[in-house]
Design brief:
Radius of gyration: 17 Å
Strand content: 25-35%
Number of strands: 6
Structural class: alpha+beta
Largest sheet: 6 strands, mixed
C-alpha cells in the first residue's frame, strides 16, 4: 500500500498536469489494482466556501456541513490518488458511476477533521473496470462521514463474454446493496445539470 501524507490539500494544478501528461500501463486484472491512499492531518474548513456551496446547492445545514460537502472538499485528495504513479489508469478515461454516503454525525464547520482517501476495491464490469474510491472524515479518532465513489474505467480490464453476464450482474448488485438495516434520514433530488 502506498500512502502519502499531506499537511495541506495538494495543489490541483499538479494533479491536472499528471492527468494530462503521464501515460499509464492499464489494468488487465482488477484484482491487481493497488491500494493507494492519501491522508490530510487536519482540514481547515472555509466557512465562506460552505456559504457559497449552500447557495449553489440549496443544502444549508444548521448543525454542520451539508451531507454532500465533504465529498467536494476532499476532491484534491481524490485527484492525488487517481494521478499517483501507482494508479494504472488514465483518470481522464474514468467516469463517476455511483455515490454512497454514510454520515454518522454532522461534520462541524469549525472542526479540523482528518481526511483519508483510498482505493478500496476494483472489479470487472461489462464496459470496463469499476473502482471504489473511499473518502473518510475522522474526528477525535471516529469516522463521522464516509463516502464510496464508484467509478467506471471504460474499456479497461478483460472484455466479458455474454456467458458471464449473470455472474457479473450478481456481483454488481452485491456492490450496490445497502446495509441490512440502514436508517435513511434524507433523500436528495438534484437537478441533472447541478454539477455544471
Amino acid at each position: 500500500m502506498a500512502t502519502t501524507y499531506y499537511e495541506r490539500m495538494p495543489p490541483m494544478s499538479a494533479s491536472w498536469a499528471r492527468a494530462l501528461t503521464r501515460s499509464r500501463p492499464g489494468l488487465a486484472d482488477p484484482a491487481a489494482m493497488p491500494r493507494i491512499e492519501a491522508r490530510l492531518g487536519g482540514l481547515a474548513i472555509d466557512a465562506a466556501w460552505v456559504g457559497r456551496y449552500n447557495a449553489i446547492t440549496g443544502m444549508a445545514n444548521d448543525v454542520g456541513l451539508p451531507i454532500t460537502a465533504p465529498q467536494h472538499l476532499a476532491f484534491p485528495l481524490h485527484m492525488a490518488v487517481l494521478t499517483a504513479p501507482a494508479f494504472p489508469l488514465r483518470v481522464l478515461g474514468v467516469v463517476h458511476a455511483r455515490q454512497r454516503i454514510e454520515q454518522r454525525r454532522p461534520v462541524p464547520i469549525d472542526a479540523r477533521p482528518s481526511v483519508g482517501v483510498f482505493i478500496e476495491a476494483a472489479r470487472q464490469a461489462r464496459r470496463g473496470v469499476e473502482i471504489d474510491l473511499v473518502t473518510e472524515f475522522d474526528l477525535e479518532g471516529e469516522t463521522i462521514w464516509r463516502g464510496v465513489t464508484t467509478m467506471l474505467a471504460l474499456g479497461a480490464g478483460t472484455p466479458i463474454a455474454d456467458a458471464d453476464s449473470g455472474a457479473l450482474a450478481e456481483r454488481s448488485q452485491q456492490a450496490e446493496e445497502l446495509p441490512a438495516d440502514p436508517e435513511i434520514s434524507a433523500i436528495l433530488r438534484l437537478a441533472p445539470d447541478l454539477g455544471r
